[in-house]
Amino acid sequence: MTIPTLISNYTKKETVSKLKQSYSILAQAITRAQVDNGDISNWGLAYIYESSVGSLDPKEILTNFFNTYLKPYVKVSEVYGYKNPILLPRPYSHSIPNDTVVRQSALYWFTLSNNVLVGIGLGTGCFERDNDGNCLKHGYTNIMFKTDVNGFNSPNIIGKDVFLMTLDVRANKFGFYQYSSYTSRNQYLRACRGEVGDDDVYNLCGQLIFLDGWEIKDDYPWL
Length: 223
Description:
With about 220 residues, the chain is α+β, with helices and mostly antiparallel strands. Helices cover about 30% and strands about 25% of the residues. The two termini are about 20 Å apart.
């Protein structure tokens, strides 16, 4: 094997190792938080966009989530807090390494004890639909975990060192970002390759690695 191939293989294994470790750390923390605080649906995370409810600052939601349901159950080496724009490398581009353009709303940032950088944010969705499928109640349905397995180091590319995990408030479920309509590995592979549409599909690469038994296989689009 050539030196570049050896380096690539080592990097893949290191990426999967850090990703699996971080997934386990976060999943266990959420499980322990449920033991102490009850069902996730009672944590006050779901916020419905209704004028009668009034406004609730995303910063308040994320800060409370971190301090109440995460920090007590996970070892954190550094807390950066809620920032926009964040004064850290921007790990949110698939096509442009080290992109410094603000590409999303603020996240609440911290590093785990294994030096993996995590930013938590709010994902939106529909809580209730009418018979025609129109959304009646739209709000925050997920806590998103943007996870950079090599911290502040490059390449800062989704699907290579940056992966997305979610905590689904409605389903009380933690896991990698998924599409509910996807039922096969091939769908996730095509998405991770960018063959099926918008930039968001690259966030499905973590689920592909999970489906492959925590392995970056030869047909994975390793850049």
